[in-house]
Structures are given as structure tokens and as C-alpha cells.
Amino acid sequence: MAEEIAFTRTAPVAEVIERLLGAASVSIAAALYRLNSCRLGRALEDALSRGVRVRLLLDRNKYQESEVTREWAANRRVTVRLLYGRRGQGSKMHHKFAILDGQVVLTGSYNWTLESEEQNYENLLILRDLQAVESHVKEFEALWLVAAEP
Questions:
Q1: Fewest 10 Å CB contacts: which of 11, 62, 92, 124?
Q2: CATH fold for the domain made of 4-146
Q3: Which of 62, 95, 96, 136 is catalytic?
């Protein structure tokens, strides 16, 4: 299947992400500015229960601001690391992408939040191009090395 795109204006993007997370069988690596969607949190937990390796990079500022996110991360087996943007505190780790099984990338403006799903105009692009996937893997792994645990 080629690239796909979903818009919150016309479809429930969380449903698309949930379906794709449900199809992952080996690994999920996600760099997310914000994560507070219970639905997507459950999909990540379901992946863990199937034996999928799940790693999350989250923006340290948003993590510290969100009690929901901190409680969710503290009560799960998901491996989480936090980082600021390139200029440290006050700058953003603003990525919004996930790599599934090293074969699919989910990216776009969509934050994994209830607000993105119910209030905002957002987009999700699903990429299966090998070069695009490899570029995202390199970015994730480079950030993973410099990120810190909560």
C-alpha cells in the first residue's frame, strides 16, 4: 500500500493510529510532543501485551505540565525518555512521528491528544517509503541517545 493521509476534518485519526498500532508486531518507536489520549495510550499498552517493544520520546516541558501523561507513564511498562528542544529548557521536542516495525512512519501535525482529535484541524501522513522510514529511524535513535528518563 502506498502513502495515505488522514484529516481530522473528515475522519477519526485516532482510529487510524489505533488500527496501525494494532498491526505492529515487533516495535513501536514514537517521538511525540504531547500524549494524553487514553485511546492511544491503551493501544500502546495492548501492543506491549502482545510482546511489541514500545519506546516513547516525549517533550520534557509538556510531560511536566501534564499530570495525565505523567500518571500514565508511571503506571505502564512503556519505556519513556524525555528531552527539551535544541536550546534546552523552554525549547520544544516538537516531533510527532511513530515508526512501526521499522516499516511504516506515522507523521504530521496530529498530537496524540483528545484536543487534536476533537477540536483541531490536524493531519496524519502514513509513509511506507524505505528512505523516509530510515530517516525517521536515524532521527529517533539519535534523540533516544541524548534523552533522559523521567
A1: 11
A2: Endonuclease; Chain A (3.30.870)
A3: 96
